[in-house]
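Obj.: predict assembly geometry.
Materials: sequence records (below).
Method: joint structure prediction, all chains together.
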Amino acid sequence: MKRWVTDLKEFRSVIISKRLDFVDLVLGANSHTLSINLISVKVGLDSEKQKELRQFLRSYIPNEKQGVIQEHEYDDYEDDVSSDDELTEEEKNREHEKVLEDKYQHIPDSVFKRKFLQNIVGNFRASKGIPRDIPCALERNATLDFNLKTKLTDQMQNSPGYKRMMQVRSQLPVFESKDYILDMIKENQVVVISGETGSGKTTQVAQYILDDFILNNRGSVCHIVCTQPRRISAVSVAQRVADERGERCGESVGYQIRLDKQLPRKQGSILFCTTGILLQWLHSDPGLSHVTHVLIDEIHERNMDTDFVMTVIREVLPQRKDLKVILMSATLNAEQFADYFYKCPIITVPGKLYPVEKYYLEDIISMTGYVKMKQRKPRPRQDASYNQFSDMIVPYVLSLRHKFGEVVIDQLLQPDSEALNLELYQELIEHICENEGPGAILVFLPGWDQISNLCRMLSSSSFFSIIGVPKQASEDRDELEFENDEEAEKREIKILTGNKDRQFLILPLHSKMPTVNQSQVFDPPPPGVRKIIISTNIAETSITINDVVYIIDSGKMKVKSYDAEKNVSVLQDQWVSKANAVQRRGRAGRVQRGKCYHMYTKARERLFDDFPTPEILRTRLEELILTIKLLELGKVATILNRIMDSPNPKTVNLSLKLLETLRALDGDENLTPLGFHLAKLPLEPHIAKMIILGAIFSCVDPILSLAACLSFKEPFFMPLGQDKEVMAKKIIISKGNKSDHLVLAEAFRLWEEVKNKKEARKFCWDNFLSMATFRDLRKLKIEFAEYLHEMGFLKSKNSKDESANTNSKNFSVLKAVICAGLYPNVAIVERVQRFTLSGKLEVVVRTPEDGNVKLHRSSINESQLSFESPYLVYHSKMKSSHIFLHDATMVSSLPLILFSHKVYYDPTGKVIRVNDDIAFHCAKDLATLVQELRQEVQKVLDTLVMEPGTVDWASNDQKTKILRAAAELITSEDTTQQKTENDVKEGAKKRK
DNA sequence: GAGCACTGC
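Observations (raw structure tokens):
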């Protein structure tokens, strides 16, 4: 990249706009050219002037960056600005860059401004396809090479433990391909390794590479990063590999996941991390310069992270010719990934599992002799799913006539034969218990409903009857000394039995149930007791239960997708993919032979997709777009088109539009200063905005509590069949605020008050809260506070610092900040109506975009009798059987007026309008005043975002005065605070 | 009139 500048002033502006994090100053031998980061400048200055220039450069670069200035003579720096065209293009670029810079001319110079400008100019340049050459940062170190080799060869020859491990390792199927794999990696920049569970690829391949480097005296120039989609696998694989090498994590093997790391040495090592961590590194090291090999595992899962990392890495490859990439996938469709990397080679390794016998619905109906009670025949629906049944399933069933009796065929021919029928599950479980050997049974069902129903059915069946509670305790229970056994029993999972010789432990497993962390699930049951685990997809990958021998696979799972036409998220049951079915089957046969019962016909399985729909096609894209912008990858559409499966352009446009509405992007897709902040925070943009406002409005701690809950998970458990009790506790914690968000913030505050005391456990137990979740959430809060501190919005890293919490006890201000973050997610309460039959009350709510929606049962507002203000802001809206708002906070008018995206006065109706659906009666004079206040507040917020700083709530400067005035008005206007004692009681009564 | 898949920074 060359450009010619002769005048010192212009030279200065060129430099200011450049990425000064990596300054590479090249002084041409003829003393006429200077090159800064590949931009050559023909200075035509004498040596004295050049010296001046260099001094200027140094003075401009922030102190901490001085170390990276490299200044060297370049003896053959030719003028290769060849054609006039290129020059013009460059000039055009320069002009455009200047436009970008001028736009923010009014902001005073600061580190933030420079970084921000650097980013948007970089984005612009990337969209022009301007490459950067990135060298590997690892330097050869002969001493280290020698030491590594000595240690390894010594271990190989002398350590009995290592030899024993080697014996085990050499039994893995991948071992036979070791040399071939190493050769292929040497010859190719990208290789796909495909193999099923048990092949050993995840634990072995990285070690083969490292050992090969070490044995060739090149250990110091090898640093392998292996990404895993889940935290648990990153840590457990690292520990396993360290074990195999006779070490602990932190030497040649380490891991890094969010909030936890055990890093290995920088050279001659393997790091296992989550894919998200690798993405974070790309922010500061876009060429992964400290890495020599990237292994991306489980790419067949098609997570957004792995898909996106593959895209970015494919862009990086031409700039990092020495970087090796190894993609690891399940066998089906490995070609798809190889094709994506320009037809790179595929190495296939076999898997190793104990055999798992497969049964399908036809076998199961036959073996159980199950006959469904004849109901009124449902009228066959003439839809796609029915057509599929009659076209594909019926012919298959008819072909089975020679094999199965008429009764079985008749069952299978009913159009709803493959519908989820829990009676059949019960029959099958009883059949297994009566006819098969010992071993745990794992049942995969799509969701809460089916799990709780099956548990209830089994509990009330005569085959299983309750005898008592198990001895093992839950993680939370463990820490609790029980005073009241009856209370304990109510929440525990029951052991069930038919007679004294046969006992059963029935365990529901769902991320929101308290069983997830229980040792009961993982440990072998007491002798004579059979475990029956009834689970969601969580047991497919995240939770591994070793003693499972029997799998019952419904073939269904809940899938969240995004309907771009209706602009709403959808959660619905779907048939699983072939890959899911294989994975579920593989959950048996880990330690011994197993059996898998698929509750669908064999013909149905042939209709399954090979893989789940890639996440990127099922989700909104705001966060991804911000990441693309932060990574300076250029135009969003261009990059998204290069992803293996490009998202729907309509989704892209809706996401871009929302980001513009949030004022995170300008009309040209450039990040705004606010967008730049939001992109750096590991949060959805709405919540990221909320925590920045929390800092500015001095109520950071409760807002961080809320942000952690919304972005990770709520600390409330949902024990089976106790939703009413949970709701009663939530309503007490809400203190009369009609806000699920304040319930979360308050629950957190209450826990933090007692967390180091003895009563913490009792507090959690009494309120259906999880200590384990709280501990994770607290780490998240600490991380958020560190980000805010680093960005300049907090004086201290401590979110509890008094100066950042002046308004933390002011619910009105909290709700206003929540409103500001969640806007434009506003719903309007129309009325509370009574159902004539049951007498139950229902809140009728609508949103401008969707029409009527419902409040979800888990919201405390679903049971409210009246609303002082008709406006509810919400975070999550999802369509299942209806469109549900899962959480909601009632807000009064002023927060909406102050923090919505625009307001205007409508003189005909004498209302101040936020949009077509939200308006407040208001005399003109008052409206003018309110609008002025809004303008002032927005101006303060804009300034604070562009020049990040903390607000001293006690000071008397202009900015603070305006914020304080706003907070005072918000508080006095919030009449909703005054009610409530009665409402609370009535609400609780209604629940009962 | 009738319920809440799962990851991750």
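Conclusions so far: Residues 1-82 of chain A form a domain with the Signal recognition particle alu RNA binding heterodimer, srp9/1 fold (CATH 3.30.720).
To do: check interface contacts against the pulldown list.
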